[in-house]
Amino acid sequence: MTEERDLVARFEDAYATTPPWDIGRPQPAFASLEADGRLGRRVLDVGCGTGEHVLMAAQAGCDAVGIDISSSAIRLAEAKASERGTRARFEVGDARQLDAPAEPFDTVLDCGLFHVFEDEDREPFVESLGRVLRPGGQYFMLCFSDEEPPGWGPRRVTQAEIRDVFARGWEVETIEPTELDVTIRAEPVRAWMASIRRS
Description:
The protein has 199 residues and is an alpha/beta fold. It has one domain (2-198): Vaccinia Virus protein VP39 (Rossmann fold, 3-Layer(aba) Sandwich). It contains six helices and seven strands; from the N terminus they run ααβαβαββαβαββ. The chain has helices spanning 2-14, 28-35, 52-59, 71-84, 119-132, 159-165, and strands spanning 42-46, 63-68, 89-92, 105-111, 133-144, 170-180, 189-198. A seven-stranded mixed β-sheet has the order 3-2-1-4-5-7-6, with helices on both faces. Helix 5 (119-132) links the parallel strand 4 and strand 5.
């Protein structure tokens, strides 16, 4: 419970200003998914932050929902949706403890959530994803790559780690090098874009 409070406090503190990941627009890798028509009908963004990917999906005609552990991030996301006249739903929630919805999602988006989890959080997170994503549904994940030099930011993730965590009940279709834009430097972060299908 203490670790849970610490995690919430860490992200609430981050939203006291503009955090490095809050670039005010969709990440290019996820914008490409939308442009290619790969989002599906029902989309969930786990760790949605201030909602840019949820709003993108909603504007594309998807039934789009975002969850985040930070109530401050959710308030900012709801304000954006109202300002833009976009129908999207946002909820405060923990992506490691998702309840099965009445209708499962076709697609789950994850921009920078997986890489903040400790090892012991990964299995509950994957199990949680399995409860909300329909069989055959797609999980798209952007995370820091181990090719990004050490220093600031979250842990770096290897392709082998991703394949290991999703070895049972999932099909890792592709893991491709890509970039994550951030607010604190002009150069993007080296990242992985993983496309993982629920069996």
